[in-house]
Each structure stands twice: as structure tokens, then as C-alpha cells.
Amino acid sequence: MRAEAGRPLNVDLTPGGKVDLRGRVIGPEEWTAVRAAATAPDGTVRLGRCWFEDARFERVSFHGVLFERDVSFCRAEFGKGVSFYRTVFAGNVSFCETVFTGNASFHESVFHGHADFSRACFRGDALFGHALWRRDAGFTEAFFQSVADFDRAVFQRDAVFHEACFRSVVSLRHADVSRNLLLGRASFHDDAWIGPLTAGGRVGLDAARSSRRLRIAARAPAVTARHAVLDRVHLRTPADLSQAVVRELLLDGFDPDLCSFEEARIDALTVRGGPVAAEPERAARRPLAVAVSAVALLGVVLATLLSLRQFGHVPAHLAHLHP
Known about the structure:
With 323 residues, the protein is mainly beta. It has one domain (10-299). 11% of the residues lie in helices and 32% in strands. The chain has two helices and 37 strands. It has helices at residues 28-37, 286-310, and strands at residues 10-11, 19-20, 25-26, 46-47, 50-51, 56-57, 66-67, 71-72, 77-78, 82-83, 88-89, 93-94, 99-100, 104-105, 110-111, 115-116, 121-122, 126-127, 132-133, 137-138, 143-144, 148-149, 154-155, 159-160, 165-166, 170-171, 176-177, 181-182, 187-188, 192-199, 202-204, 209-210, 213-219, 222-224, 229-235, 245-252, 265-272. The protein has a 17-stranded parallel beta sheet that branches. An eleven-stranded mixed beta sheet has the order 1-2-5-8-12-16-20-24-28-31-34, with no helix packed on it.
């Protein structure tokens, strides 16, 4: 539905009242009137159930607003930058297919219910530093044209970025994820910092794609990047890179034997803070090296047996290995 102007606002102009602005064009004057009417005696702007589907907002601010019930911004568009700084969403919130033309600040915002940003489009900076999600945060197929900042964000359940596209820098430094951080099939077109962070469950980058530098440092039960196609990876965490394709891999500060490289293709491997392994694809060929070592060991045993046989001193427990 195309946003329309000129119709009377369908709002309950009391603190905690319902607001229905579906399909509306809301400028600064209309929104200032809504904020003023919804301001409680303690100075907090309190809104109840809100419908903003297909609305268009121009130069508005939700700074410090308390949404006491569910709110939907599905398919809404913010023509300029918008601030949700320290905004509190007490219920569920949906930004599904929402378009943020300018910068969008959710710095220190709090999400008590489910937060759905699936297929949202951030054309300006997406700023989620210090944000808190008490339930799942969903960014499936979200598009980030500019910087995506999740530094020191706290996810008390899952953080899901399946098939998200990051065209610019993305940062999850010092983030805390209580359960899983899932970036399966995500694409990174600029530098990405996945950590340092802590996760209670899996950090998944399976089938992800990166064309620049990807830094991964996570304290988590499992870190996986199976079937991923990555350019330059700086890895500070034991991980499963089975069947991954990596142009340059730097293992920093831990034993490479803690990683899994089954059927991986690694063009250049460097180990820092441990044994140096400069030979290309060394990790991928480790099973072959083990087999060669086993054959060599067997040859030594047989040669020893031949020597002992000449002197008639073959131990009884090795008699079945006679050549």
C-alpha cells in the first residue's frame, strides 16, 4: 500500500494508547504532536499497540519511546535518518521489509519480545551498539549497504543472520550471545569482525561468502564454516572448516590440530603463535601425510624383523609378521 497524507490520524492520544498510521506519510509536525500527547507525567513517551505498516516517516525520532505492546513497521520507509536510541520495545516488534534510507540508530535500545528485521534494507549505517535482545533477534536476508555495528550488543537468545548481505564493514566486537550466532549463507563484501565475542551455543558461518578480510574470535562450544568460500580469514578460534575454500588462512594463537580441515582447500596457510606451517594446503593433506608415515613405520618394522630372523631371534608376539 502506498503511503498517503491528508487523512485524520487514527491515534489514541493518551499515554499507552493505540496508534494506527498504516499507509500514512508522517512528517516531523505530526509525529511531534503524537509524542507530546503520549507523554506520561514522568516524561516518558508511552505508546500501546502500534501499526505502522506501509507508512513513510520523514525526519522523526523515537528516542526514548516506550512501546508497551506489540508494534509493526512492516514495509515502512524512513526517508531520512531515524533514531531509536534507548527505545524500549516491551512486546514483539517487526521491521520486516522496512527500508531505512538514512542512518538508523538503535544504540542502547531494548527488545523484550521477538525482534524481526528479516529482509530489512539499511542503506545508511545500522547502529546497534550496546543494544539488548531478551528474545530472538532475526535478521534473515537483511541487506546492509553501509556499516553494520553490533559492538557490545547482548543477545540473550539466538541471533540469526541467515543469508544477510553486508556490503560494507560489519562488527560484532565484544558481543555476547547466550545461544547461537547464525550467519549461514551470509555474504561479506568488506571487512568483518566476528568477535571477540562469547556465545553459549554455536557460531555458524556455514556456506558463507567473503571477498575481503574475515576475523573470527569466539569463545563458543562450536564454530563452523563448512562449505564456506572465504578470501582472507584471521582465525583465533578452533573451528570446523570442512570442505571450505579459503585463499589465505591465518591461525593465530592456538594449535592448528584443534581445527578440522576435512576436504578443505586452503591456498596459503600461516600459523602464528605455534608451529609454522607455510606449505600450501598442508592442513587439507594431513590424512595423506598420516598414511605415508604409517607405511614408513611398517617398513622399519619389517626391516627389523628380517634382521632378527637372520639371527633366529624373532619375538614370539611378532611371529605373525614374518615377511
